[in-house]
Amino acid sequence: MSSRALVLLAAGGTGGHLFPAEALAGALAARGIAVELVTDERAQRYGGHFPARAIHQIASATPSGVSLVARLKAVATLGIGTLQALLLLRRLRPAVLVGFGGYPTVPPVFAATLLGVPTILHEQNAVMGRANRFLASRVNAVARGLPGPKGADAAIEAKSTTTGNPVRPTVAEAAQQAYPDPHAGKFHLLVVGGSQGARIMSDVVPVAIGLMPEALRQRLAIVQQARGEDEDRVRQAYAKLGVDAEVASFFQDLPARMAAAHLVIARAGASTVAELAVIGRPSILVPFPHAIDQDQAANAAHLAAAGAATLVAQPDFSPDWLASVLAAVLADPASLVQKAAAARRSGIAHAAERLADLVVNVAKLESPNETAA
C-alpha cells in the first residue's frame, strides 16, 4: 500500500451507523491502514473517540419532511454536501470509500462514484434502507449485516456479501462472558430503548412488574434505560414496588450490562440485534412500528427465527402480556439457556475482520503489517 493510501468511512446520524464504522476502523488500524471519517454534525456526539486519523464534517439532511418546502431544502442541503464531498475527496484521494447507510452517507458515496473512487456500502438491517437503495446500483460492492436484505435486485445481489454487523471492541470483550446461571441469585433484566430511548418501555415495563406476584418481583434486578424526562417516574415506580432497579438515560458500559443480563427487552435496531447475537443473550424485541421500511421488524424476525428472541408488535406489548411472559420465564429458566445458545449461534463475531477483508480486496490494498511480514 502506498504511503498516502487511505480508507475513508462515511457514517453519521446515529450510533447505529457509527458503531459498525468504528469497529471497521479498529480492524483496519490493526492492519496498519490509515482511516478517516466523514460525517455530519449530528454524529459529533458519538464520534469524539472515533479511531480515525481525522474526522471531516459535511452538510446533510433527510428529504422526508411533510412539506414540499422541507423536502426541497433537504435536497438542496444534500447538493451542498455533495459539492463539499467532491472537494474533500479530490484533496484526500482515498483508495476506497465505505458508506454505512443513512442520508449523511449519500453525498460522500455519490461523490466517490462520480470521481471513480472504489466504493462499498454496508447495510446493517435485514431490509435495505432508502439511502442505500439509492446508491447500491452505483457502488462496487455491498456488505450485508444480515442475510438477504429485501429491496435488492438481482444485480445488487450479485455484488453482495454477508459480512455481518461489526461490533465495538467492548462488545467483543463482553462476548467472552458465559451466560449467567439463571437458577442462582437474582434474575437480571435489562431494558433498553435504542440510542434515543423508547417511551413505550417506560410506560409498560414498570406496570408489568407491578402486576407480578411479590415473590417473583423480589427475584428481579432491573437495569433500565429511560428518556431523561421519564427517569424519575420510572425510578419512583420501582421504588414503590420495592424492586431492585437502576434507571438512567444512558449507560456507557451497556455491552457489559447486556452480558450480565439473563433477559433483554429492547427495540430491534441493527446494532442491538448484532450485539445480542454476538454476546449471546435471549431477548424480547419490540420493533419500532413507524419505520417506513419496517427494518426493525425484519431484524427481530431474524433473531426470532433463530430461536433466540420473542418478537412482539408494539400494540401487543401490554403490561398484562409482559407480566405473563416474565412469570413464565422465571418458572422455566432453562428455556433461556437454550435461547442464549441460539443467539450466539446466529451471531458473526468476526464481522469487522470480514468487512476489512472486503475493503482490502475492493481497494486492492496491501496492509503495511502484511508487507512487513
How would you sum up this structure, described in words?
- This protein is an alpha/beta fold and 373 residues long.
- It has two domains: 7-167 and 349-367, 3-Layer(aba) Sandwich (Rossmann fold), CATH 3.40.50.2000; 172-346, Rossmann fold.
- 46% of the residues lie in helices and 14% in strands.
- It contains 17 helices and 13 strands.
- The chain has a seven-stranded parallel beta sheet, sandwiched between helices. A six-stranded parallel beta sheet has the order 10-9-8-11-12-13, with helices on both faces.
- Helix 3 packs across helix 4 (106-115) and helix 12 packs across helix 15 (334-346).
- The chain is globular and about 65 Å long.
- The mean pLDDT is 90.
Tell me briefly what this model is.
This protein is an alpha/beta fold.
Q: What is the second-level CATH architecture of the largest domain?
A: 3-Layer(aba) Sandwich
Strands across the major sheet, in which order?
3-2-1-4-5-6-7
Structural class: alpha/beta
CATH classification, class level of the largest domain: Alpha Beta
How far is the N terminus from the C terminus? 14 Å
Instruction: Tell me the β content.
Output: 5-15%
Task: Write down the overall mean pLDDT.
Answer: 90
Number of helical regions: 17
Order of helices and strands: EHEHEHEHEHEHEHEHHEHEHEHEHEHHHH
List keywords for this structure.
alpha/beta, seven-stranded parallel β-sheet, 17 helices, Rossmann fold, 373 residues
What is the topology?
Layout lengths: L6 E4 L4 H16 L4 E5 L4 H4 L7 E3 L10 H25 L3 E4 L6 H10 L3 E5 L6 H7 L4 E4 L9 H5 L1 E3 L6 H6 L12 E5 L7 H13 L2 H4 L2 E6 L5 H11 L2 E5 L5 H7 L2 E4 L3 H10 L3 E3 L9 H11 L3 E3 L7 H13 L2 H13 L4 H13 L4 H5 L1
Parallel strand pairs: 1-2, 1-4, 2-3, 4-5, 5-6, 6-7, 8-9, 8-11, 9-10, 11-12, 12-13
Helix pairs in contact: 1-16, 3-4, 8-10, 8-14, 12-15
